[in-house]
Design a protein that fits this description.
By secondary structure, the protein is mostly beta strands. The chain contains 1 helix and 9 strands, in the order H-E-E-E-E-E-E-E-E-E.
């Protein structure tokens, strides 16, 4: 079982020495479910990207901003959980931050007959 406090400290330290100001590790991978710890130093950005079919973002530490087309979609601060937008978006760290990203990479669409 991952120790999120230890992972947060480890990845924030790594992000502080990374040229792009970030560090991440996949900590849970079960079928379509994935959970990733992401650390970003203040000012670091995850460039615009598409969302998987379902995703949530929990701020373990710090404060980030989710933007769609350069406009603020939502600010997420420590201890907050937010269901991510299905639009292409970027993430900007407003402070040194550690996030837990939970994604579902596909959604079963079965026919009933």
């Amino acid at each position: 079982m991952p120790d999120l406090t230890a992972l947060a400290a480890e990845h924030l330290a790594a992000a502080r020495t990374d040229p792009h100001g970030r560090s991440a590790q996949l900590v849970v991978h079960d079928g379509e479910l994935r959970q990733t710890v992401i650390a970003l130093v203040a000012g670091a950005r995850l460039g615009e990207h598409a969302s998987p079919p379902a995703a949530s973002l929990q701020a373990l530490q710090g404060h980030v901003r989710v933007e769609v087309d350069g406009d603020v979609q939502r600010d997420v601060a420590a201890d907050e959980l937010w269901e991510l937008t299905h639009e292409r978006h970027s993430v900007l760290a407003l402070a040194d931050s550690v996030l837990l990203l939970t994604t579902v990479t596909s959604v079963a669409t079965g026919s009933h007959g």
